[in-house]
Amino acid sequence: MRIEDSGLVVPLRPDVTTVGRGRGVDIRLDDPSVSRLHAEIVRRGPYVYVVDMGLSRNGTRVNGRPIARRVLEDGDVVSFGTARCRMGGIPREEVDPDVELRRAVAPELTRREVDVLTSLCRPALSDEAFVAPATAREIAADLVVTEAAVKQHLLRLYQKFRIPEGANRRTRLANEVIAMGLVRPLPPVHVPQQNRPMDAGRTRPPEVRRPGTGHGPGHVTGPGRQATTAGRRAS
Question: What start and end residues bound the annotated signal peptide (predicted)?
Fold first, then answer.
């Protein structure tokens, strides 16, 4: 990858190359429009694709088009915020670069794994500019379980979603889960102020859709159910 501002050519790692403004990334871009962890460039055999981490409002573009995840071809210009880089040395393959690299079938998940993914992804679905998935400690506090138990669940989830070892593994898991559509925010619940003044403006937690069903735990335990009950009492 050639950084256009400096002309520096940086080789990609054999598996995952992180790009951003932070000190811990593989390719550091000193540009205020670039987030600390902006994107990942992933190599899978002859294929190379870029994944926007969703941690910056400035986003990632390929040849001027905003993307979430896209296969790269030789000569593509990838913009991280306003920092432009050109890809080179990618073997030509018969693949549509616009194809979203998502697995067609989600792995089978237990109810507890669904709960862990819900808690993991909740921060990533907020409107904040820079946000990271929940830590194992935060998930443990949210689910009222031990941190060791959460780490065991995460290890199994890494295997189920085929997330390779390396830095930012939790972020890659959350990104994959959101990209597959397993986690999505629910719309706000509007409760009349005279009935539930403390709940006005609250939003439901993210919904995780279990594979093979159309419902997630938000339909069962979310504040929307409480609001409906409150409405019955008021009437």
Answer: none
